[in-house]
Amino acid sequence: MLLRGYTKRIFRPECNPGFESLHCIAQLHQDVGQVLPYLNSHLGGFEYHPDPPAVTFKVQGRLITVHHDKIALNALADESQADKILNWLKGEINYCWDHREEIEPSFEGLPRPKIMEILKLLPKTNCGACGRPTCLVFASLAAEGVLGAEDCPDLEEEKGRALRAYLQGFDWGPEGPD
């Protein structure tokens, strides 16, 4: 077992104290830097940074970043959700550490969709029907996995199919805890 414990801090973002969701930083009691390439490979990290080591996952609409000394969670409903995700990650970290001989480490993140490829499929009318000010903003959010073809009301059927097919080619990370 590599990770035995952590100390968590739950807070609202300082830049927007009225924001509904919570954030969490869990300070790890052990350094987990050595397991991060294995965790990245096992869970399909969205981004991997070698120095200092950190891997980011997109799980159920939120970003989770595991650093060598802490875990950062965003968009949480409550503290119990943070506990559930942290316990799941602790299990995954320890699984990867215990099975590192069987896991091929990965030092790269997943390929990302290209904003301009998404924009080519959009109507480019900047109509705002999707709730975003421009099609470029929509394309940026779609590239991050926040929006999909179904979120553009003015998207032609054929281009909608093409956009769905394009975005399905990218894996957005693990499913996370149940």
* Structural class label: alpha+beta
Helix proportion: 25-40%
**Distance separating the two termini:** 23 Å
- The count of helical stretches stands at 5
Strand content: 15-25%
Show unreliable segments.
none
Going across the major beta sheet, what is the strand order?
1-2-6-5-4-3
The arrangement of helices and strands along the chain is EEHEEEEHHHH
Summarize model confidence as the mean pLDDT: 90
Count of DSSP E strands? 6
Entry keywords:
single chain, 178 residues, alpha+beta, six-stranded antiparallel β-sheet, 6 strands, 31% helix
Plain-language structure description:
This protein is α+β, with helices and mostly antiparallel strands and 178 residues long. The chain has five helices and six strands, in the order ββαββββαααα. Strand 4 (53-59) and strand 5 form a beta hairpin. Helix 1 crosses helix 2 and helix 3 packs across helix 4. The longest helix has 20 residues, at 79-98. The protein is globular.
What would a concise description of this structure say?
This protein is an alpha+beta fold. Helix content is 31%, strand content 21%.
Write the layout of secondary structure elements.
Blueprint: E1 6-11, E2 22-28, H1 36-43, E3 47-50, E4 53-59, E5 62-67, E6 70-76, H2 79-98, H3 115-121, H4 135-143, H5 157-168
Antiparallel strand pairs: 1-2, 2-6, 3-4, 4-5, 5-6
Helix pairs in contact: 1-2, 3-4
